[in-house]
Design brief:
alpha+beta, 89 residues, WH-like_DNA-bd_sf, single chain
């Protein structure tokens, strides 16, 4: 499956951030200076497509099982935000 402009933009944003981030926070970052704002479902579909390709990892917060974080899959998990790597999904 080829990368779409949105998946490429999402991956670039996650690489810039360098720490796990929620879908909502990622959407807010991507909507800066965007004439037509994205909705959270668009961002989730793009990041989930990247997860399916192995480009990003999905993490969960230890304190709240409903909160999901995303990070670039390359390199070790080194952020101390409280998220932990989730098993294969």
């Amino acid at each position: 499956m080829p990368a779409t402009p949105l998946t490429a933009e999402v991956l670039a944003a996650l690489e810039r951030i360098g720490c796990p981030v929620t879908t909502t926070d990622l959407m807010r970052l991507l909507n800066r200076d965007r004439p037509t704002p994205l909705v959270v479902d668009q961002v989730y579909r793009a990041v989930d497509a990247l997860r399916a390709r192995g480009a990003v990892r999905r993490l969960k917060a230890a304190s709240n099982k409903r909160v999901r974080y995303w990070e670039v899959a390359t390199g070790p998990h080194t952020c101390s935000c409280g998220a932990s790597q989730q098993g294969a999904s």
